[in-house]
């Protein structure tokens, strides 16, 4: 018999009131946890145009705490100088640029205004903008940060890269959101330099979460192609230049030099890349936790900025602006871990799920015990699944029994069991093999079987791979969809497999998969 | 007042509050009792399970782009073969009623059955195991214990995914939004048929959910007006659908207006140097309607708002010739006009 909802409420109130309630899993809807608040006025939530970018702009437009606005006196002559720079051919403007630089801080606001005007100019004049920026480089300061942030998007890579570099020396920690946002963006070659400069700029604020991006870029295409066409020559030269820049930043951050030279042979390059990767493995934790740079946590201004960024991140989650929140907290990395661990107990299901997800992405081992504790009390399947999944990123052999129990417990939902199974695979301990094998032998084939095959295939098991391939060859659309998804999920490669495609196209894809496995 | 009376009063108060909170909302009819709810509710684990009673609707869904949301090769490619996990939430969402409906809600990602994409359970499964129906007169004794949920009739159920690129915001500002014409009214038209095996025919919404993947459907969303006067060609593209911008939603979508001029001998007249767009290989004049990705800083939003007309004027060559006016709807912006993911949705020839 269905019990009316209001009687359930009565029962709950009575049970809690008489002290017989266990630790309750908070339900979504009400927010009882107190997260740090952004102390600027809140926009009206009803505004359909509202986006968390409002917070970015609130942070970025904040007057710099230490720098006084330049006095207006003498700006007319600076404006004249700028007029002359704009109207002078680039090769003749060097002396004028020096002159502007010598004017010092008074020039800064005039240059910023000129740059703002240039950004809005019609027709666009990117070359002129770059020249103005080189002038600003001589008088850089905190109040230049807003326009520098806008210039990160400039169409000229020289401008965007220089803007990123100048943000590092602008002594404006509130620009961190913009810098961080640059790390993972823009995969095309043109923008690599901007990313490198942004990552370097962030290290000036003791934020090192961009270093893995640098290492990935350094390791990518380690063997530079022998240029055989003009286009290839350009590309190779450019990549070599980027790699030299990356190495320069790494040397500066680490104080080490592993002799990377983009012009050396492949074996030597691989070796030095390997040494950089080993160096990061050894020092990652101390860099990301702030131990390496004790001044970062001792610096109250920076600490305050980081706390505000955390606050922005959580507020963004509460406003369901997931992409920005996830991106910001993930990039703050270990600096955000204590807050994220706290958020595992948040009243909102949505925040608990995302806190677990970001903790898993950061991969900080401090989250391991809180994950296990949370799994003991969490009742909501989405959160259980996400915590189980994240545990795979930080767990060890000691978590295998718990994950095995979850994967094999019929009272858990399918999504939780699948997540636990994937985590068993991610931990990769020998003791995980038995539960994975048991799941792989389930018949009829279900989601758990597929998940187990994925894990086994990732570990090199050919029969599991063949089983997934058999799904792909099935006459049933659903099986093909399941098989093609599983294979791409497992290996992140894709041979144009469309489960809806005609048989011949599907066969081509299956052949490509098989050949890929053979070569692998 | 003794303790027993106070407790009784508290119970009554809590009961009333409980009824108002859970029993008396607009969304759930408190008089309804789930048909299967007298026994154990079945645990629904896959959209395949729906096919046995709703074969037609299941087949429609299976052929739809909701079903293909995760397996679609374009999505696979854009998510870098599923490396980008941020995409999972909308391409393989957990049941929407679990996280809430409305403009400011977001969905959570599934860990299982990713291949089913946006499936039946995404929109219909309720947290208590019953199934949501958009019909107030739903037969609650059916095996899946359906219950009327008003949100299913409204944009609130679409918004958590489809407002990621502002479509629902566009709709709210549009004439149709102001008039209360919802997503379902255009994208899920009604057909007379049996809602389930063994049931009598009645008006039932289709689950194909036509959109940008259907060129014929896109072609109903605009009107092209052309005029040649005083040696100039004027082309106007009007968004006649009035429900949202054209194109909308996925920022990969683009609608390209291409005017190709040929001289009297049939030779292609190349664009004037000042009008050449980067990468342009086809067309004498071009214009693009598109919402750029947020990191495409050099692009501006050129979508056509509902009911509005985008007009262009170009100078024609002095000699006689022919102008071909075409519109291409592209699922990815950086492809050639005739590529696989590009469909010509309008073509018109004009002599001058």
Keywords:
heterodimer, A: 520 residues, Leucine-rich Repeat Variant, B: 352 residues, Immunoglobulin-like, 11 helices
What does this structure look like?
Chain A has helices at 5-17, 53-60, 75-87, 94-103, 105-119, 126-137, 145-151, 157-169, 176-183, 189-203, 211-219, 230-254, 266-289, 294-298, 300-318, 322-332, 337-343, 349-362, 368-377, 381-394, 400-408, 414-427, 433-440, 447-458, 462-472, 477-491, 503-519. By secondary structure, chain A is mostly helical. Among the domains of chain A are: 298-464, Leucine-rich Repeat Variant (Alpha Horseshoe), CATH 1.25.10.10; 465-520, no CATH class. The longest helix of chain A has 25 residues, at 230-254. Mean pLDDT of chain A is 75; it is low at 1-76 and 222-228. With 352 residues, chain B is of the alpha+beta class. Chain B folds into two domains: 30-205, no CATH class; 215-351, Immunoglobulin-like. Chain B has helices spanning 3-23, 55-63, 73-78, 88-91, 96-99, 120-124, 159-162, 167-173, 175-179, 183-187, 215-218; strands spanning 131-133, 146-148, 190-193, 202-205, 222-229, 232-239, 254-263, 285-289, 309-315, 321-330, 342-351. In chain B, the strands form four sheets. A four-stranded antiparallel β-sheet of chain B has the order 8-7-10-11. In chain B, strands 5-6-9 form a three-stranded antiparallel β-sheet, with no helix packed on it. A two-stranded parallel ribbon of chain B has the order 1-2. The relative contact order of chain B is 0.11. Residues 14-38 of chain B have low confidence and may be disordered. At the A-B interface, α1, α16, α18, α20 and α22 of A face α1, α3 and α8 of B.
